[in-house]
Structures are given as structure tokens and as C-alpha cells.
Amino acid sequence: MKFFKTSDGLKIAYREHGSGVPILCLSGLTRNSTDFDYMTPHINNARLIAMDYRGREQSDFDPNFENYSIEREGKDALELLDHLGLYDVGIIGTSRGGLIGMGLAAAVPARLRGLLMNDIGPVLEPDGLSAIMGFLGRRPKFKTYDEAAAALPTITTGFVDVPPDRWQQEVRNRWEERADGLHLRYDPKLRDAIEGADHSVAPDMWPFFDALTDKPIALIRGENSDLLSRDTVTEMQKRRPDMIYVEAKNRAHIPYLDEPESLDVINKFIKAIS
């Protein structure tokens, strides 16, 4: 794990793997760079750079939770690229990471070679958002990794044929086991940031998607996703008939990215931005 300092003084963690076309890997809302651990061993033609957002995993927590925003996290991503001396990169964005990618496409288009979105689009379904708020910022009731790994197949709907060792890895990626039970691997004030945002009017994110007009894009949707609907995918395809697309079978929000169909799309995306 490596670190750099942001312009406002926080220490941000990141990892690098491989060589080739540079790709910035941006994780989900409560998650971290381990989102890409399953994919990484299968990719041999790219330089993968995965960061922990501020307030997640090994990065510093922000004393001002209002900085847990897409705008600030996007700025951190650009500062990481500057730190590495990289001007333009491809982005693989899982959930929130895809939203950040669309935001960067609108704000600094020259710095993006293209965007692959993992189970995210310009419209977020209420059921999926409600599911996220159900656990956001709250410690799980489980006391041990083993207890959590045994329960996840039952309480995690939409995932089929997931081997036990994957659930064991997932609980370790999500939580930290201590003497008094499992703890979050992110700042629980992330919930305050989301609740404090103005939700009175849902933002129109289609202009951000449309900002990708002249760049290669790809989309992986979990077959059973409750956050990204097929109707939204249809509209995305209508606007971008050239979008590389697949549904990951037996997956919900979010695919692990090592599914054969997901890897096929990832490799096509890498070729398109190389």
C-alpha cells in the first residue's frame, strides 16, 4: 500500500498492479480498493491503480464529514493522478466510482480515456438506495468473520452460486474483527454526509453520462441488480449504441468483476482505450 497527501492535508492510500494502459479503479460508497482484488489477477495488459477514498480503509478520516462527497472524492482522484504524473487514464468505476467517473467526464474530459461502469448509471432505483441506507454507517450484528460469512448467503439477495471462500473474503473486505465484534472499515459519519445532502430534487445525471459521448464506455450490470434497472440500461444503449455491455449472471449489486462475462467486457474496454 502506498500513500499521498491531498491538497487539504489528508493521507490517501492507493495500490498499483501491473503495467500497460493506466486505469484508475474507483470503488463503491462504503467499500475500498479491495473491490478490485478479484479482477486484478486476470488482467495482464493494464496498470491498475486502486485508491481508498477519504474515510475508507487505510485512508485518513476527514474531520469534516461534508467532504465525503462525489466532488471532493473526484478531486482526490485527480490529485492522485497528478501525484503519479498521469494526465489521462481509463476509469473502472464500481457504483459510486462510476458516478465519480461521469462527474470527471463532465468537469475534466481531457483526463479520461474512457469509463467502465460497474452496476451504475444515470438513474438510481429507490429500492437499491433504500437497501444501502439500511446498513450505511451501522456496525453489523455479527461478532466474528465466520458468523458473518455463514449469514451473508442468506441475507444477500440476488447472488447465486457464490463459493464459501468468497463470502469469507467479502466479510474481511467489509469489516474488521475485534474482541467486541465486527467494526466498519470506513468512517460511520459517511451516513451523516449522505443524509445531509439535499435530496429534495433528484439531480439529472444524464448530462454527465452524455459528457462521455466521444469516449469509449462499457457497462456491467448485475442480472439481479436493484440499483440499476434494465430500463435505464436501454436508455443508455439508445444514447450510446456502441457501449460495450453485459449482464453478469447470478449477480446483484455489485458484480465481483471476475465473472467470465465481466472479464470479457473489461478486456474489450482496455483494448478500446489503449
Automatic annotation (TrEMBL):
Domain AB hydrolase-1, first and last residues per copy: 23-261
GO molecular function list: hydrolase activity
Gene3D superfamilies in UniProt: alpha/beta hydrolase
Keywords: Hydrolase
Stored Pfam families: Abhydrolase_6
PANTHER family: AB HYDROLASE-1 DOMAIN-CONTAINING PROTEIN (PTHR43433:SF5), HYDROLASE, ALPHA/BETA FOLD FAMILY PROTEIN (PTHR43433)
Protein name (database record): Hydrolase
